[in-house]
Structure formats: structure tokens, C-alpha cells
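Regression test case RT-17, inverse folding.

Input:
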């Protein structure tokens, strides 16, 4: 198993929002692959955040969801030390992911576990940011322990800290790379200038950018195109925005189509699949560097998302759905 770390805000669709066919017997699939650095990963990842924050499922269902993702060919699991609900639970999601992997009977050698450091949750629903070198080093050390590894495959700076020079935060990530505590590095919630700065400081060990991008939030296209130019993987968080509610919106959020996104539902009806699956297939068609990380809190949901890796939209469908 290749250890990594990255935080994703996943999608938690309403139970009735997908047309899902549950397999009658367990079988492990292989998805088309993409690359993060020199590591091949399934074209669809799993954003594990919904398994640990507000409205999270019980542990049995959470572990079943991770196992279903692996069975469906997902090999990128995205987590973060700040993915938890209550105060005093730092690392809840990392610990859960590690426990699920330990109980999995299949081959873990292709699995890349991604985490991030630099954010916190005091337990009142809010988020904090701390990009100081001392905090990042401490956070990485704790993530190593929770994930049960001596080197994290992909460690991402969760968010720029306005109180800390970005170069200082990146310098801490570079030191972790030099010391072998992390194998690859990424940044999240970064603009184009920050991505270029990260590339200057980290060189080709910068392998990913994790930014918000979805049918309803397309402002990240300049960063996506920059990632194409630099050969860096682009990991959209909350990739089903406008199609499903995000876990950031809260468990009681209504799920209604955004204006202008009816085409996703139209294509889904014609194909006999969920609009979420169409959304992810559309995203994969936008760029070869995209690896979406949809969230899930039920096995059926991640199975449906993973199936997007094998859904090829034709030119007419892509024209109807529109460019980034």
C-alpha cells in the first residue's frame, strides 16, 4: 500500500437521488487509471470526509463504504487530520481509514491514502487554519502514527494561512520530503500564483492540487489548466456540487438541481444512470489530469461513483454538458 494524505470535502447525496444497481456478489473491479506523480490510481477516488464529520454513519457502515470503494477499483482514498466532528477527535478520519484497510482482505498494494495538514476543527462546526512550520511538522508526525506508516505517500498543505508566509509553509513540506517522512507533496485551495510558487520550492515533488471544482463551481478552471501545463494531478473536491449536496452543506441540505445544470439529468435519463455518474464522467473528459474525489457515506454511493470511470460520454453529450 502506498501511503498518502489529502483532505476532500465529499458529496453526500440523498438516499433517493441515485439509480443504483447493487452487485449480487462481491467482485473486485479494475478502473481506468490516471497518475499522481509516478503512482497510477483509479480514475475515481474516494473522499472519506463524510465518514467522520457531522451526520457521519456508524463505524460498521463507514468501513463497509471504504471496502466497497476498494472492491469497485478505487485506489485513491482521500483523508485529513481535520476530518472529525467533535473536539478532541483530531485524526478521526485517518484512524478510521487505517482501521478499514487493516480489515480488508484484498490486495492493498495499489492503494494510495492521501492526507492533509494545516487545518483544525475546534468542535463547534468551524474550521481553523495553521500553516506554521512547527504545526505542519507536528501534524505530519501524528498522521504517520495514525496511518501506521513510516512515510506518507502524498501529503498536502490543506490551505494557505494568511498569518504565515506561503513560502514558509512550503518550506516545511520540503523538509518533510527531504527527511523521507512524505514521498510526494500537494497543495490545496491554492490559486495559480501559489501553485507556481509551490512548484518553484518543491520542484517535481509537487504532484497534486486539490481545489473546489464542480458543475456549479467552475472558477477553478485556470488552476486546472495550469496543472495540465505543469503535469500535476488536479483533484476536485466537492466534485458533485450542483448535482448532490456537499457534506459541507450539512446533512439536512436539500438536493435540487442548480439552474443551468438540467443537462446532466437529461443525459442521465437517456443513459439510464445517475446524474452523479454523468457528472463524474464529464469531469474525467475535461482533462487527463483530473482525478475526482467524491465523498460517500454508503457503499452504494461509492459503487455508483466508481462506475463513472467506465462511462464514456459522446461528443454530443459533452457539448450539451458544456466546457469547464
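Golden output:
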Amino acid at each position: 500500500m502506498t501511503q498518502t494524505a489529502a483532505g476532500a470535502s465529499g458529496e453526500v447525496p440523498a438516499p433517493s437521488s441515485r439509480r443504483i444497481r447493487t452487485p449480487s456478489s462481491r467482485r473486485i473491479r479494475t478502473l481506468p487509471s490516471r497518475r499522481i506523480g509516478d503512482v497510477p490510481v483509479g480514475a475515481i477516488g474516494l473522499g472519506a470526509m463524510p465518514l467522520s464529520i457531522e451526520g457521519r454513519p456508524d463505524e460498521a457502515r463507514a468501513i463497509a463504504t471504504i471496502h466497497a470503494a476498494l472492491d469497485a477499483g478505487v485506489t485513491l482514498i482521500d483523508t485529513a487530520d481535520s476530518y472529525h466532528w467533535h473536539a478532541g477527535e483530531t485524526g478521526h478520519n485517518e484512524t478510521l481509514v487505517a482501521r478499514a484497510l487493516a480489515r480488508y482482505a484484498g490486495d492493498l498494494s495499489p492503494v494510495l491514502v492521501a492526507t492533509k495538514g494545516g487545518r483544525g476543527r475546534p468542535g463547534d462546526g468551524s474550521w481553523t487554519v495553521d500553516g506554521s512550520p512547527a504545526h505542519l511538522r507536528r501534524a505530519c508526525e501524528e498522521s504517520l502514527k495514525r496511518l501506521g506508516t513510516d512515510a506518507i505517500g502524498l501529503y498536502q498543505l490543506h490551505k494557505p494561512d494568511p498569518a504565515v508566509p506561503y513560502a514558509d509553509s512550503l518550506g516545511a513540506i520540503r523538509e518533510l520530503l527531504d527527511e523521507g517522512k512524505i514521498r510526494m507533496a500537494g497543495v490545496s485551495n491554492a490559486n495559480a500564483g501559489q501553485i507556481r510558487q509551490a512548484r518553484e520550492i518543491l520542484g517535481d515533488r509537487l504532484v497534486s492540487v486539490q481545489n473546489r471544482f464542480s458543475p456549479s463551481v467552475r472558477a477553478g478552471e485556470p488552476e486546472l489548466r495550469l496543472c495540465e501545463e505543469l503535469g500535476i494531478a488536479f483533484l476536485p473536491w466537492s466534485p458533485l456540487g450542483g448535482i448532490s449536496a456537499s457534506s459541507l452543506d450539512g446533512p439536512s441540505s436539500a438536493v435540487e438541481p442548480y439552474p443551468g445544470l438540467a443537462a446532466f439529468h437529461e443525459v442521465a435519463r437517456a443513459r439510464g444512470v445517475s446524474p452523479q455518474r454523468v457528472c463524474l464522467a464529464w469531469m474525467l473528459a475535461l482533462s487527463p489530469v483530473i482525478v475526482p474525489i467524491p465523498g460517500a457515506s454508503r457503499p452504494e454511493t461509492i459503487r455508483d461513483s466508481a462506475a463513472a470511470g467506465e462511462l464514456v460520454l459522446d461528443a454530443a453529450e459533452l457539448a450539451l454538458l458544456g466546457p469547464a
